[in-house]
Amino acid sequence: MIPLLLLFNLVTTPPDQALLSGLEYRQLRFPRGGRSTAVTGVASDPFTFYFGGIGGGVWKSTDAGTTWRNVSDRYFEAGSVGAIAVSDSNPNVVYAGTGTACPRVDVSPGVGVYRSDDGGETWRHAGLRDAGQIGRIRIHPKNPDLVYAAVLGHASEPNGVRPIRRSAVLYP
User: Fold this and answer.
1) Contacts 24+ apart (CB under 8 A), 30-34
2) What pLDDT was estimated at residue 155?
3) Rg, Å, the chain Cα set
4) Distance CA 165, CA 153 (A)
């Protein structure tokens, strides 16, 4: 256990400048995006990741996060992404649920779920247009057409879309 006085001294002592002199800052080049509640990797490829920004669409990295590029701007009608999932049986199949999954003071409603069959290069709307916010997506481990979506619905009004939807509504 660290004595309180020593702990206080560690916190208030300025860092050794020689240690910091070798560090360099780098810009990750996210011109927008904000916070994220939607992040996933590809089980069969440890260098590929996706994240969905609350206000920035879907981003993809194929070099373990060194660089990122937006893959949704030309396709999505909403910028807010609350859920994202990659199929284990076919990593080219990616689903993204729109709308803020964890609404705070501000809410960015979604327009349903999108599906990509080519690893995020192109997308098409897959259903649940009136879902409001999609909080989570799970894909069957052996069938990428069998999908479950946890639907928050509209944050401030009742609707008949809540709570869990099965892929009968999410067209492959």
Assistant:
1) 30/56, 30/59, 30/68, 32/56, 33/57, 33/59
2) 72
3) 20
4) 11
Angle at 91 between CA 85 and CA 96, to 5 degrees: 25
Amino acid 75 reads Y
In the chain, the amino acid numbered 91 is P
Q: Which domains does the chain have, with CATH numbers?
A: 32-166 (2.130.10.10)
Report the DSSP beta bridge partners of residue 165.
Answer: 149
33 in Cβ contact with 50 (< 8 Å)? no
Rounded distance between C-alpha atoms, residue 167 and residue 89, angstroms: 16
Taken as a whole, the chain contains a residue count of 172
Beta bridge pairs of residue 40 = 50
58 bridge partner residues: 52
CA angle 161, 164, 167 (to 5 degrees): 95
**What is the Cα–Cα distance from 125 to 62, expressed in whole angstroms?**
24
Alpha helices in the chain (DSSP H): 4-12, 17-20
Residue-wise pLDDT tens digits, 75-101: 999 888 999 999 999 999 999 999 877
Task: Extract the tokens encoding 118.
Answer: 């080519």
